[in-house]
Write a structure and sequence with these properties.
By secondary structure, the protein is α+β, with helices and mostly antiparallel strands. It has helices at 2-31, 42-69, 92-124, 151-164, 222-237, 244-256, and strands at residues 168-171, 181-186, 190-197, 200-207, 281-282, 289-290. Strand 5 and strand 6 (289-290) form a beta hairpin.
Length: 295
């Protein structure tokens, strides 16, 4: 009996360690690149840190499987049995033991429930596609690609955006063509070089006004590199092959919110600076400013 309790205690400790390390992995992923990663090779440092955490979680999971396999399966439904009376104890240590047992069971039940739901969702959303053979009796009309449109259509779209935001100055270093490149300036705050592929945004780079208009060279300022990363995320978020014009207008409406990049405080911490940076993220719905660590 004492041996069974010792094995149970070892298994619970293994689960507790696994849960703590998994929480640390999610916290690291949500935080992303931090200031303590430095400027040089920060992506590699972040990936090495994440790889080390995942290796630790994998080892913890192996320990949990080993400790659980050594336990004797209960003859019937497993419950807390007499440990429920621990909640009536006046000793603080025994009360804490009861709480830990309850939390462990709740955690394992949630894992079982979430894994079942995830399995059902993956089963209903199969990535397999069926294709019809070329020997069909009816031929469908080929839809016009958003990549192949007349230059005047793109010119009308960009002209409409220029009229929609009076404080945004749009110039075209490359004349209007099927795949134009424009420069959108937000007053004296920043400028963005935006490359189109037909009616869809293909690439965005944000820089200071004093920097070059090279599309493939990132800004030397960290604040504008952060804004560029967020622009790429917003570009993917607003992407819509079925409604490309609305997608471009939605992106430009979101981009226009950066006209207060250096004047609006963070919505969560109410500070203008955090890690020597202003709020470089704008909420995709409310357009409210947030620091990278506060979003």
């Amino acid at each position: 009996m004492d041996r069974d309790l010792e094995q149970l205690h070892t298994a619970l400790n293994s689960i507790k360690v696994l849960r703590s390390n998994v929480g640390q992995v999610f916290e690291t992923v949500s935080s992303g690149l931090r200031a303590d990663h430095g400027e040089e090779g920060k992506e590699n440092k972040f990936m090495l840190e994440l790889q080390e955490l995942l290796t630790t979680v994998n080892n913890n999971l192996r320990d949990v499987e080993t400790s659980v396999s050594s336990l004797t399966p209960p003859p019937g439904p497993f419950n807390l049995a007499n440990t429920t009376y621990l909640s009536q104890e006046t000793t603080q240590e025994r009360q804490a033991l009861y709480g830990q047992l309850v939390n462990s069971y709740k955690w394992t039940d949630k894992i079982r429930e979430y894994s079942t739901l995830a399995g059902n969702i993956l089963a209903t959303n199969s990535v397999n596609k069926t294709y019809k053979t070329f020997s069909t009796t009816k031929r469908r009309k080929t839809q016009t690609s958003n990549h192949n449109v007349a230059p005047d259509v793109i010119e009308n779209l960009i002209t409409g955006i220029d009229r929609l935001f009076p404080d945004v100055t749009i110039t075209a270093p490359r004349p209007f063509a099927p795949n134009p490149i424009i420069q959108a300036s937000l007053g004296r705050v920043l400028k963005a070089i935006i490359a189109f592929k037909g009616l869809m945004i293909e690439w965005v780079v944000v820089k200071a006004h004093s920097e070059s208009n090279d599309l493939w060279t990132e800004s030397r300022y960290k604040v504008f590199r952060k804004v560029t990363e967020n622009c790429h995320a917003a570009m993917c978020h607003f992407h819509s092959p079925t409604m490309p014009e609305l997608a471009v207008r939605s992106f430009m409406h979101w981009f226009h919110s950066y006209n207060t990049l250096f004047s609006s405080p963070c919505k969560r911490c109410a500070n203008h600076l955090h890690n020597n940076l202003p709020p470089t993220w704008r909420d995709l719905r409310t357009l409210e400013p947030y620091h990278e660590e506060c979003k």
